[in-house]
Design goal:
Radius of gyration: 23 Å
Distance between the termini: 55 Å
Number of helices: 12
Number of domains: 2
Number of strands: 10
Protein name: ATPase
CATH superfamily of the largest domain: ATPase, nucleotide binding domain
CATH architecture of the largest domain: 2-Layer Sandwich
Organism: Anaerolinea thermolimosa
Strand order of the largest sheet: 3-2-1-4-5
CATH topology of the largest domain: Nucleotidyltransferase, domain 5
Strand content: 15-25%
CATH class of the largest domain: Alpha Beta
Length: 345
């Protein structure tokens, strides 16, 4: 009996494509949306980008539009069809509360996927991407702050991510807010003098400390989270008040993290805390009190900065919800993504 063994490379490539499964991750943010497609081995095949998708800014129609645009770009780059996606994971900025789940899933449904999907808050895919086994706690300290937790068996812990109204401090905006309070206390003589006062006077172009206070009160001068860098500069020069501002915010963020750890009851386990956000660029002035606060409650915690694009966590979530083991594919997916990133720029 004669057996036919195909050797034509075009035919073999088509055969491999027919049997290969692909997984999608989408990271939706307030300024941009990323889509990433990888095959079942964890090799990246396509990437797409679009504009903002946070429904708080663009509505759910805008969320759907951003996801669709990034998805179509990734599909085109991967040279596959929508029907070949076997699982999809979504990290959605603005998806903070249970009541937002259904409209989020409705927006995802407009993509036309015919596969298992899961949607989580966008910082969770950072946790999935950054923790070696996809679970632990993620601490996000950018302009604002957020903390989420996830156990190996799927239990979740979270806070609102809505900031000072709910006693959640930790972002750059909080550092600046606290610094302005310290400057005001210097001006009123309620508190000690601080070099923050002169630094902010120079930064906004005020003529004096009184002019600075008056200008802030009457909205003549406008400050924002970027001023946190100035607070770190003053603290690094040895100003005790600036150092205390940073220590207080870091400690507060640590206590918020401990609340999430307590929710999922992992304080007696060894687990990873994934750190995301620009505030951590401030170094030990911020990270040391944060870590000390967490370790006093959960001594088995270890800390790692996220260096992988969060959208990788979306792909891993897509694999997970489709029943694919991610541990053996994680390293290759991360390596493949880093190699592929040059095409994103």
């Amino acid at each position: 009996m004669t057996c036919f063994i195909p050797t034509d490379p075009i035919f073999l490539n088509s055969l491999r494509k027919m049997t290969m499964k692909y997984y999608l991750g989408i990271d939706v943010g307030g300024t941009k949306t990323h889509a990433l497609i990888a095959d079942e081995h964890g090799t990246v095949r396509g990437f797409g980008a679009a504009g903002p998708g946070n429904h708080e800014g663009v509505g759910y129609d805008g969320l759907a539009t951003a996801m669709q645009a990034s998805l179509q770009a990734a599909l085109a780059q991967a040279h596959i069809s929508l029907s070949e996606i076997a699982g999809a994971g979504f990290g959605i900025a603005g998806y903070d509360f249970p009541s937002e789940r259904q409209p989020t899933l409705d927006a995802i449904a407009t993509l036309g996927l015919d596969c298992p999907v899961e949607a989580v808050n966008d910082v969770v895919i950072g946790l999935i991407a950054g923790a070696s086994h996809g679970w632990g706690v993620v601490v996000d300290a950018g302009t604002g702050c957020n903390v989420r937790g996830r156990t190996a068996d799927g239990r979740e812990g979270w806070v609102t991510g809505c900031g000072s109204l709910f006693g959640e401090y930790g972002g750059a905006g909080d550092i600046v807010f606290r610094a302005v309070q310290a400057i005001s206390h210097h001006w009123s003589r309620r508190g000690p003098a601080t070099a923050l006062s002169e630094a902010f006077i120079r930064k906004v172009g005020a003529s004096s400390l009184t002019d600075l206070i008056e200008g802030l009160a009457l909205q003549k001068y406008h400050i924002h989270g970027e001023y946190a860098r100035l607070v770190f500069e003053v603290a690094s020069s040895g100003d005790a008040v600036a150092q205390e501002v940073i220590r207080w915010i870091a400690t507060e963020l640590g206590e918020t993290t401990n609340a999430v750890i307590r929710q999922i009851d992992i304080q007696n386990q060894t687990f990873e805390v994934v750190l995301i956000g620009s505030v951590f660029n401030g170094g030990p002035l911020f990270t040391r009190p944060l870590q000390e606060t967490i370790l006093s409650f959960a001594p088995g915690a270890t800390f790692t900065r996220l260096t992988t694009p969060p959208v990788v966590g979306g792909v891993l979530l897509g694999m997970e919800v489709a029943g694919l083991c991610t541990d053996e594919r994680r390293s290759h997916l991360i390596e493949s993504t880093h190699a592929y990133q040059v095409l994103w720029k």
